[in-house]
Each structure stands twice: as structure tokens, then as C-alpha cells.
Input
Amino acid sequence: MKPYDMPDEKGHFGQFGGVFVAETLIEALDELRMTYEKYRHDPDFLKELHYDLKHFVGRPSPIYHAKRWSDRVGGAQIYLKREDLNHTGAHKVNNTVGQALLAKRMGKPRIIAETGAGQHGVATATISARLGLECVVYMGAEDVKRQAPNVYRMKLLGATVVPVESGSKTLKDALNEAMRDWVTNISTTFYIIGTVAGPHPYPMMVRDFNSVVGVECKSQMKEMLGRQPDVVVACVGGGSNAMGIFYPYIDLPDVRLIGVEAAGHGIETGKHAAPLTANSPIGVLHGNRTYLMQNAEGQIIETHSISAGLDYPGVGPEHAWLKDIKRAEYVAVTDTEALNAFHSLCLTEGIIPALETSHALAHAEKLAKTMKPDQVILVNLSGRGDKDINTVAKISNISL
Amino acid sequence: MSRIANTFKALKETHRKALIPYITAGDPHPDLTVSMMHALVDSGADMIELGIPFSDPMADGPTIQRASERALAHHVGLSHVFKMVKAFREKNTQTPIILMGYANPIEAIGAEAFVERAKAADVDGIITVDYPPEECMQFTKLLKEKNIDSIFLLSPTSELDRVKLIIEQASGFLYYVSLKGVTGAANIDIEQVKSKVGIIRELTDLPIGVGFGVRDAATAKEVAKISDAVVVGSRMVQEIENSNKDNLIQNISKLMKELREAVN
Ligand SMILES: Cc1ncc(COP(=O)(O)O)c(C=O)c1O
Output
């Protein structure tokens, strides 16, 4: 079989992806694409990247057999890839470290980013502080409220956090605003996009930087079990942690890949953030073509999820492609199911997962029950839940 | 020849420059758009750029974003926009209408249906902000078949090869974005625009319009000296924003006349 080698030269994954931006951004994207091509296989660049991933981020992250939780659930054995143990507490940092090193090579003194849950914003502020770069983070005003601890962390790290008041005041609007900043300050500014969305080369580049997760899993699983898992499960907002763990497994057809979207109050209520599961139409947003939650007039509709990091109406174009070619499956779990999984992991394993990650855990739980005890599910534990304790406490009517 | 080409030809014969105001369809209210369009023509507009409201106008600054939000509050979408153009055509069959918008509303109804309906409404040109030429070959072809002009943006950062690529696809006129940034961002650097427009002129006979930073009559005057058309967007929308139902037509007409005088 021909090895998987998407996207094409222009960033297309079949009909998805591409470069849908105003002419004013084309040159900046060309410059970025050429810089990335130049360095992606450059030994010095890779050496610096791997040094940072090891000594600053703390890679490799371990895989942990959640034995007590697996027993409690009953069925397959659940293993967790511990991205929550990374510096800054999520997989997001893998990508920011990579892009920041590119920014440094391009001589750009100013970094901008969009953020939903704040994890990408924190990771970007962190690496900017370390490299001595100015950092501005755009964050929906709604998210500024629900992720207050992360807002303060970014400020401690010297970043400027700009609350975005336009549109639905969430992640998609933060992305719009970051794009507007970029087009205005192109010559000085590097835009670090935090997920596998945006115009080419972002979906490919962010995937590549996160694929360290899947690459490690392959050798760690082999070492631990002498084989690969039966199923890999990851939550999908824009889809970067999922692409990171899926990508190295795409050419192993025996490994099922499952992406878990946010069903919010339930797919049937319309209040969700699950374009793949809900069979949303194809559209164009944020520089790429993908499945997109929208009304009949092509206006993007408001999404809902308990987790800010999944609250996005689109999905990275490569996931749209993997769905169409049936290489990956996509399902969704509700706010309530995610919360139950959150508490369950806290109590049985002593791990507080992010609410985003809790969606993947909730599906793993359902799936495990249908599988045999000698089968293996590997979940990307994409981040830790410290940032979410206010949200969870509020739901439980507890004031901190 | 298209209505846009005819308009440029007629203007050229009288040594005049085209003045193109931008308004967002449905801003401040869908019932007012058609009369605003007539008022702009009566006060000196040679063509009208009519914005299709979009929930995520990534290339627009706050002024035009708010215009989109006001229109969307009345649920104005493409079907209304086509109706407005049709209604406008009942009294005016001369003035070119250019729709400006983003790809998603077009793709939501489908490129073929869009072109069909644009033709039926008698639209003259389309600017799709987030369709660079590489991504819309098929759409451009459909438009061409119906004799609707595809107007493309050129930016200060466009390299020569790209300018050539865009010229190959473009018809009607070329729209030079006068600054790095979103609509309404900053003031124009006239010297810089002049030199870039000069380079583009060497490569094409298509008329060249300039927009994205024309803030007042004085700037319009300077821009008109070095281009074939001046597009006034955010400044016009600002006037709409600062008006009420009773003085709206009066205010935009006054602004339009000021611009016309400056450009003549
Ligand atoms: C811990 C964690 N997991 C997952 C996500 C969702 O993003 P993606 O789908 O790009 O992995 C986020 C986003 O903020 C996050 O913080």
C-alpha cells in the first residue's frame, strides 16, 4: 500500500484544506511555508527542537496503564498517554515550541496567538518568555471569564491578553481577531496557530509538531506490551492532539482511530460543537475548507461545549478527510458524560484531566465495556484539569 | 462588453475617475438598502459595492464588522441581497453593482446556484475576499460564462508573479488594497500606492481601483489622481453608523457629493 502522504503541495486533503485568505495574507503564508520546508528536516533545527522538547517540555511523556479505572469500567485495558505531564500541562506546547523556533529563525520579534481554553495561550506565552519575544494572545471574552486561571498565568508570563468582544466571543472569534492583527503587522509578527486549522501550511505543520505524541506511543506501546493498541481515542476541538496521536498510526490499518467531539447538550438539541458527528455541511472558514456548523445562509452558528477548547464550529481539514476516507471514526459525548468521566478518573486514578480530554475518556469508557479484557485502548490524555476546577466547582454549586 | 467595462469606458472618454461607495446590504436595516443605493447614485456614485453580510468577516476592521452584525441582526443573507439588487434594477439599469463577500455564504448555496441567481438579479461583478485565484478557478469560469466580472484584490505584498496570475483571472477591474491590514485600518501611503499601481499598469489594460484606506475627500482626491477608481468603504459605513433613520439618506448623500467634488 502507498504510504499516507497528505496534504498535497497546496495544502489540500482531497477537497478539504487549502488556502482561503485575502490576498494581503498570501505572501506571509508563502514565507511561512518556505521557511517550514527549509527547516522541517534540517538537522540543526531538529536538534534544537528535540533539546527543547526533552529539557523544557519534559518529553517523552509516559504512557500509564489506568488499571484501577479499567477494572472499574470492565472490559478493555485503558492506557493513557500523559500529555498532561508536559510543562504547561497539555499537548499544545509541542506545537508552540516548534513554531516559536521557526519565528526565531525568521527574525520575528512579536508572537500572536488565539486561544480557547487558554492552554495554547499559556504555552505560547511560556515559550515567548523563554525566547524573549513579545506575545499577544487573543481570547474570546466568554472564554476569558470561564478560564480565569489561565488568563492570569499568561499575564504572569508577560503576555498581553486581548479579550475579543465580536461575534460569539469564543475561540472562532479569537482566531478572526488574530488573523486581523497578523495582516496588519505582517513584517514583525509570527502567528502561532494552536490547532490543525487555518490556511496551509498550518494544518500540516501543527500536525507534524504534535506527531511526536504518536511517534512516542508507537515505541512505548511496543516496549510495554509488545504490540500496538486496538483503538486510539482522542478528543477533537480543532483536532491537534488527535492528529498528533493518529498521524503515525494512519498506515497501521489494524489500529482503530476514534476522534471524540463535544456533543454539548446533545447533538439533537443543536447546542453542540460536533460538525463531523452531526454531519454538518462543507464550508470555508479560517482559511480552509472543512465540515462546518452553519445555517442555510452560510453564517457560522454558535457552538456549545462545557469545554472552551472544544467550542469550535469547524474541525481541522485532515479530520474531514480521514472521516471521508473512513480511516478514522468520529463520535461525540455530552457535557454530562464528559463531567462524569472527569470525576471518575479523579477518584480512581488520582489524575485530574482537562474537560476537553474528559470527552475522550468518556468515550473510551463506553467503548471499553464492549471489548475484551485483553484488548487495549490508548487515550490521548491531552491535558490536565487544573484550569477547569472553577467550572467544575460551579456546576457542583461549590464556591471556591 | 460588461456594464463595468462600459462604465469605465464612458468615464475615460470624459476624463473622469470612478467613485465606488461600499455599503453592507441590510445595514442599518434591510428596508433602507435600496433607497440608499439610489441616493448614492444620485449623489455621484458610478458603481456600488454591496457587501454580503457574514458572521466571520476576517478581512474587515471593526467598522465593517459592526455593519455585518447590524445586518445579521435582521437575518440578511444572500437571498435578501439578490432581492435588493433586483429591486434596485427596477429603477436603475445603468449602474454596475458589485457584490463583495466571503466564500462561505456562496458555497452554502453552491457556486452554480449563486452564479445563476446573481445573473437573474443582474449583478455585474463579484469580489470574494477569501478566494485567492488558485482556489476559485471553477467559480471564475462559471462567472465568465454568465458575463459577470471577477474582481480580485491585489495587495502591497503581492509579488510580481502573483500579480500576473491574478491579472489572468481578473475582469472588470483590479482592486488594489492600499495598505497592509484590514478594512478601515490606517491612512494610505500615496507614494507607495502610486509606485505599485505604476507597476501593475505596465502589465495590464484593466482599470485599477484603489481602496481600504480612503478616509476623506482629500485622500479620495489624491487616490483618484493615480488610479481609475476610488473605493470608499469604512468611511461610508461610519456615516451610516452615525446617522439615524431620519437623516441617513441626507448624510450619505452629502458625503457622496463631497467625495464626488473632490475626485472631479
Ligand atoms: C487539554 C486540551 N485538549 C484538547 C484541546 C482541543 O484542541 P485540539 O482539538 O486542537 O487538540 C485543548 C484546547 O484548548 C486542550 O487544552
User: Anything to note?
Assistant: Chain B touches chain A through 46 residues (CB under 8 Å). Residues A 90, 92, 116-117, 119-120, 195, 235-242, 309-310, 354, 356-357, 382-383 surround pyridoxal-5'-phosphate (CB under 6 Å). The CA atoms of residues 9 and 207 of chain B lie 10 Å apart. The beta strands of chain B are 18-24, 48-51, 97-101, 125-128, 149-150, 153-154, 174-177, 208-211, 229-232.
